[in-house]
Amino acid sequence: MTNSLQKKLHENGYLIVKNVLNFNTDLKPILNDMEFVMDCLIQKYAKKREIKKVLNLDFKKKYSYISKLNIYDLDQYFNTRLPRDHVKRDSDYFATQSLWNLITNKKILDVVEKILGKEIMSNPVQNTRIKQPEKKLPKGSIYDGLSGRTPWHQDAAVLNTRGQKLTDMVTVWIPFTKTTKKNGCMITVKKINKMGLLNHISGYRGQVELKNSELLDDMKHIYLEANIGDLILLHKHSIHCSLPNRSNDFRISADLRYNIAGQPSGREPLPNFYVRSKNKKNLKIKNFKQWLALWEKAKQKCIPRKFAFKYPLPTFKNNKRDLSNLI
Ligand SMILES: O=C(O)CCC(=O)C(=O)O
Predict the structure, then answer these.
(1) Which of 37-41, 214-218, 244-248 has the lowest mean pLDDT?
(2) Which is the closest atom of ligand 1 to the Cα of 131?
(3) Which end of the chain is more exposed for a tag (fewer CB within 10 A), N or C?
């Protein structure tokens, strides 16, 4: 059973669906919650005499202020998942009512249903990213995918080995700010998903990076620019990266993922639950508090082993799956 959206995604590896979300009702609540988190951090870390003044600043100025306070793992306060490899009892993450509303948003699920079918689970490979202009970033953050550029990769490569083999996952990338070539949109190469899963290496700070990715630099790139309200969908084998934010403004986005129900999430034991099903009994997680409880339960399982997920790099026995041998 194929429809035109599914066909296009499988054919090209990416898809831009225009005007799906409403800024005020679907997106602004998340920015409000991010600002609330900033206010809490200001109360906790700002100099006492500066607190009142800083609390009156706007979103961007507040964020710029706190980003200079040297708060350990600042991005994690705004990222909607547990930290990768240092899960502790007090590990923070951005799981808010507004994000729950976005993950279960009917308009998003209607689009996802056209790709994955009617039995859909929320997949825990998800991020929220606040990207300041690159010139304002500390040097160590320029190549950190949450606050800076992301390296060339395929999303299937960030799953565990079972997930890499068995999971049909789609990425839904959501801009909270207009996203352009100048402020660091993602780029991809048309139809490159057709190559299937390729060998990756461990890149900057252990991020997953496509092996021989320099070979992509000279190919024709598609700039995945988007307006507020649009969704960008990526095939799990689409090879993509994001550009530096060379503008003077912020670039804010969320990347959510969904998989066909019944398949592994690829990141056990993180939350993987039905968001749509013909059988209503499958819809067991029905509200924000239940979702949060899933994350806290997962955290308890991750604390003793210390990590939330690992990247078992797709390394096939020989180099037949190296990009250099396929182009
Ligand atoms: O938002 C970004 O900069 C990168 C997102 C990305 O690479 C992804 O969602 O897989």
Answers:
(1) 214-218
(2) 3
(3) N
Query: Hey, what domains does the chain have and what are their CATH numbers?
Result: 4-325 (2.60.120.620)
Global pTM reads 0.96
Helix (H) and strand (E) counts in the chain: 8, 12
In angstroms, what is the span from residue 52 Cα to ligand 1's centroid? 35
Among residues 314, 326, 265, which one has the least CA distance to residue 157? Answer: 314
DSSP string, 152-183: EEEGGGGS-HHHHHH--EEEEEEESS-B-TTT
Check pLDDT > 90 for residue 313.
no
Take residue 123 and report the two structure tokens written for it.
């997949």
Query: What is the C-alpha separation between 295 and 96, in angstroms, rounded?
Result: 12
**How many angstroms separate the alpha carbon of residue 111 from the centre of ligand 1?**
19
| Residues found in the chain | 327
CA distance 117 to 114: 6
> Of 199, 201, 238, whose CA–CA distance to 322 is shortest?
199
Element (H, E) at 291: helix 288-305
Task: Give the C-alpha separation, 254 to 201, whole Å.
Answer: 25
Q: Does ligand 1 come within 6 angstroms of the Cβ of 213? A: no
Please check the confidence at residue 290 and state whether its pLDDT lies above 80. yes
Give the closest residue to 197 by CA, choosing from 158, 243, 224. Answer: 158
